Amino acid sequence: MPLDEAVLLVAAHADPDLDLAQQLRRLDDLAAGVAAPSIDALRTRLVDDLGFAGDHLGYHDPRNSLLPAVLDRRRGIPLTLAIVAIEVGRRCGVPLVGIGMPGHFLVRGTNQPDSFVDLFDGGVELDVSGCRSIFETLHAGVAWDSRYLEPVDNLLIVARLLANLANAYRRSGDAKALAWAIELRLRLPGATQRDRRELALLLGAAGRYDEAAAHLEATGVDQDDRMAARLRARLN
Fold first, then answer.
1. Alpha carbon of 127 to those of 106, 120, 124, 130, 131: distances in Å?
2. To the nearest whole percent, how much of the chain has pLDDT over 70?
3. Based on C-alpha coordinates, what's the Rg of the chain?
4. DSSP string for 16-44
5. How confident is the model at residue 234 (pLDDT cuts 50, 70, 90)?
6. What confidence tens digit (pLDDT) does each residue in 92-137 have?
7. Residue 96 half-sphere exposure, CB side, CA atoms within 13 Å?
8. Is the pLDDT assigned to residue 192 strictly greater than 80?
């Protein structure tokens, strides 16, 4: 599935009335205003003309992980601002790839392996040493690995989006939204048994005992099976 459609389908769980076709047209309109098929022109359109920027004050606001809200507010986190750039760039002849560096997210041109753009920091251009400096600031004492600057595919981008969204809902205390975010995350590679157990707890707390039990049974752990049996007993 195309990246734009995938992230909009995630957002549709937060807003069931969301018009996906209309949201796709918004990306088309952004691309139509890019003056030339270049990264500089794309950055000028998004950052200088339209004011897309990082939400430094409300970083953990769930809206920063929902693409329609990012387009409305022109604020987001590194990942969602990168998604905007990737999808607008795709439409106007500026192919970009996502760089999923731990703790931060960047983009680069498909033919520019040593030049990166940080949309969260005003579209600043970075070389490899600049990226490493950001990493070392975020992860003091952790060894740098050049593989952190390898492109990630759309599946990993969506998985990371859902992880960010789940963290935002944990912070806000929205258990219902957290449940659907984790449930979507479980459908993608890389989800953990911890994710499944957390979803089971949320479903159990909402009285959805049968669904909670099914998730616990899926872990194949004896302790989880016993907990699942106790949940199913509540159905009687």
1. 11, 16, 10, 5, 6
2. 100
3. 20
4. TT--HHHHHHHHHHHHHT-SSSSHHHHHI
5. confident
6. 999 999 999 999 999 999 999 999 999 999 999 999 999 999 999 9
7. 32
8. yes
Q: How many residues does the chain have?
A: 236
Neighbours of 132 (CB within 10 A): 17
197: Cβ contacts below 8 Å, ≥ 6 apart: 215, 216, 219, 224
pLDDT (tens digit per residue) in 35-49:
999 999 999 999 999
Identity at 197, one-letter amino acid code? R
| Sequence-distant (≥ 6) Cβ neighbours of residue 141 within 8 angstroms | none
For residues 185 and 199, give the distance between their C-alpha atoms in angstroms, rounded to a whole number.
10
Q: How many helices (H) and strands (E) does the chain have?
A: 11, 7
CB 202 within 8 A of CB 195: no
What's the pLDDT score for residue 1? 84
* Residue 27 near residue 33 (C-beta atoms within 8 A): no
Half-sphere exposure of 166 (CA within 13 A, CB side): 20
